[in-house]
TrEMBL record:
SUPFAM superfamilies in the cross-refs: S-adenosyl-L-methionine-dependent methyltransferases
A Pfam match: Methyltransf_24
InterPro entries cross-referenced by the UniProt entry: SAM-dependent_MTases_sf (IPR029063)
Protein name (record): Unannotated protein
Species lineage: unclassified sequences, metagenomes, ecological metagenomes
Species the sequence originates in: freshwater metagenome
Length: 251
């Protein structure tokens, strides 16, 4: 009886030891997994924090350049990012465009106007956003910006893009800013700019594209620089990716 009880106890102890070891291995595996997850989360947090800090730096540099008389609307979500807006300001002040054409109005329109762009034509398919831009410009004392609001037109090849009537009088564009229409409107939504507006550029024009981290916009940027053999493209590591296509030095 005693021997049987002892065997039972030994068996129970052996089972307990095996179970403890198995639990220990499982805990170690879970600990490794949790550690890896925490490390990954920390990495993502640091990256996001760096992005936020970069945008904050861009705002800090942008505001003194613009000398605003009223608050800026939010620059998150659909709006252009501060680093993109800062590039718009720098390029505009550098090239001093006589005619600027912008696809998609918003804060960028105000930045262009405050940075010295002489004549601005901004195309927008949204009555809501176009009207908001007009009101924002008025609140900042900006007059004379030509915001052309018209619903997208269906072209013969089936895509929808800015209406032909909105191109009236546009020629010799010195600065072309491509930040519309939204990608949700078509596949390759912004690609028609290559056909309809690139031929209207002046010889020393500069083209700026937002969102070039997206495949569609990068494809458009590559096509534009290919169509302009006297130009070079610089990709800026902005929040959404910015392409600046400008004349080669000395051209």
């Amino acid at each position: 009886m005693l021997v049987a009880s002892l065997i039972t106890v030994i068996a129970a102890l052996a089972y307990l030891v095996r179970s403890t070891r198995a639990l220990h291995r499982k805990v170690n595996r879970n600990a490794d997994r949790v550690s890896k997850e925490l490390s990954a989360q920390t990495g993502r947090f640091k990256t996001e924090l760096a992005h936020v800090y970069h945008q904050f730096e861009a705002v800090e540099q942008l505001l003194p350049l613009l000398k605003l008389s009223a608050p800026l609307p939010p620059s998150r979500g659909w709006a252009a990012s501060p680093d993109f807006l800062l590039t718009l300001a720098h390029v505009t002040k550098k090239v001093r465009p006589r005619l600027t054409v912008e696809l998609g109005s918003g804060i960028s329109t105000l930045v262009l106007a405050k940075s010295g762009a002489k004549k601005i034509v901004s195309l927008d398919h949204s009555v809501e956003f176009g009207t908001q831009t007009r009101e924002m410009l008025l609140s900042h004392g900006v007059r004379g910006v030509d915001i052309r609001i018209h619903e997208l037109e269906t072209y013969s090849r089936g895509y929808k893009w800015y209406a032909r009537s909105t191109f009236k009088g546009i020629a010799k564009i010195d600065l072309l800013v491509i930040d519309g229409p939204p990608s949700s409107t078509n596949e390759d939504a912004r690609y028609p700019a290559l056909e309809h507006l690139v031929p209207l550029l002046s010889p020393k024009a500069t083209v700026i594209l937002d969102d070039v981290y997206r495949d569609e916009e990068r494809k458009l940027a590559d096509a534009i620089v290919k169509a302009l053999p006297g130009h070079v493209m610089t990709i800026l590591s902005h929040e959404k990716g910015t392409a600046v296509i400008s004349p080669r030095t000395g051209k």
